[in-house]
């Protein structure tokens, strides 16, 4: 299996350098990754570096903890779209999930979706599955599935637990067929990446993307 087209080649560390973004985008073009996922302040730079290719530019909103005010997330979304972001990975209010404040979460997604949809952008909702119970994950699948998002995403990579095969399978069982799954957090080798895809993930958020695709067995899309 050639995993390149599944991968969002990602760098989100707070010490990210311009040189890191240049390397990320060059690798994304070389290997044919689906997207680069960069901090908001580098969206414009990444857009220029990927121009003329099929590589999309993604960025994060409310990252990494999700407890920014709805108005702040809207401002981030608007600025990211102005800078040229194609895809928006939005961390929802994890604290609201843990407090069962589903009315707040419904308000949050209902404010965000029309703005993103008005510009035809892709929205990925991050729920940080590693800190949630199965019941909370199922409830998220229900609320965000109805909202019509493009992807439900497992993790930011900043929690103690990232993507798991079990979480992806739970997502897939409870999400509408039209909602895709992005697995992220702790994906460092080909074998695990393939397990996540086999479980139902159609995108993988990875910083070790090159090592993953180079680690593919012979005849499986290795480079």
From TrEMBL:
The active site is at residues 89, 153, 182. The keyword Phosphoprotein does not apply. Signal peptide: none annotated. Its EC number is 4.1.2.4. It is found in: Cytoplasm. SMART domains: DeoC. InterPro entries: Aldolase_TIM, DeoC, DeoC/FbaB/LacD_aldolase, DeoC_typeI. Pathway: Carbohydrate degradation; 2-deoxy-D-ribose 1-phosphate degradation; D-glyceraldehyde 3-phosphate and acetaldehyde from 2-deoxy-alpha-D-ribose 1-phosphate: step 2/2. It catalyses: 2-deoxy-D-ribose 5-phosphate = D-glyceraldehyde 3-phosphate + acetaldehyde. The keyword Cytoplasm applies. Keywords: Cytoplasm, Lyase, Schiff base. Catalyzes a reversible aldol reaction between acetaldehyde and D-glyceraldehyde 3-phosphate to generate 2-deoxy-D-ribose 5-phosphate. Belongs to the DeoC/FbaB aldolase family. DeoC type 1 subfamily. This is Deoxyribose-phosphate aldolase. It comes from Sediminibacterium roseum. The lineage of its organism: Bacteria, Pseudomonadati, Bacteroidota, Chitinophagia, Chitinophagales. The gene is deoC.
């Amino acid at each position: 299996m050639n995993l390149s087209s599944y991968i969002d080649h990602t760098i989100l560390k707070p010490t990210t350098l311009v040189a890191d973004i240049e390397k990320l985008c060059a690798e994304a073009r070389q290997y044919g990754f689906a997207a680069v996922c960069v901090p908001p302040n580098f969206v414009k730079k990444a857009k220029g570096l990927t121009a003329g290719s099929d590589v999309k530019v993604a960025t994060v909103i409310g990252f990494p903890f999700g407890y920014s005010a709805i108005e702040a997330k809207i401002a981030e979304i608007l600025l990211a779209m102005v800078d040229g972001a194609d895809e928006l990975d939005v961390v929802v209010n994890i604290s609201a999930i843990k407090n069962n404040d589903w009315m707040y979460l419904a308000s949050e997604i209902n404010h965000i979706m029309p703005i993103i949809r008005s510009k035809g952008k892709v929205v990925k909702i991050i729920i940080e599955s590693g800190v949630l119970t199965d019941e909370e994950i199922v409830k998220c699948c229900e609320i965000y599935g109805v909202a019509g998002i493009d992807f439900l995403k497992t993790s930011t990579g900043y929690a103690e637990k990232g993507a798991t095969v079990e979480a992806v399978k739970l997502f897939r069982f409870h999400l509408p067929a039209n909602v895709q799954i992005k697995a992220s957090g702790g994906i460092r080798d080909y074998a695990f990446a393939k397990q996540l895809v086999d479980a139902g993930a159609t995108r993988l958020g990875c910083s070790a993307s090159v090592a993953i695709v180079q680690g593919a067995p012979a005849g499986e899309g290795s480079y």
